[in-house]
Amino acid sequence: MAPRPPATDHARPGAGRRALHPLIALNAVLVLVLCVVTLSPPVGAEQPRERARGDYTMVGGSIRGGASNAVFVVDSVNQELIAVRWNHSRRQLEGIGYRNLGTDATRPRQAR
User: Fold this and answer.
1) Beta strands in 56-105 (DSSP E)
2) pLDDT digits (tens, 9 = 90+) for 81-98
3) Is 60 in contact with 74 (CB distance < 8 Å)?
């Protein structure tokens, strides 16, 4: 009598499909974990606060110790002030300064 070859899982019908079910489930879990890690925000990260639309007022004035004038722009909603002047040689506006009026209002006034 001839020896029989050893039985394999491929010899039984449906055995290969049953072996794939745990692998498919594992892949689904790994894809879910990848999505959660990728789409979740970093720990401790704050959402950026959207800047409110400003309400602007412009006032022209002179600068101490300077020959040119300046334009002061106040944003009353965001409580900010900027000062700019026109540079004739470059033909562009130059920033002179910026102040956060909300911060200035909460600080105690220092003697000069």
Assistant:
1) 56-62, 69-75, 80-87, 92-100
2) 999 998 889 999 899 999
3) no
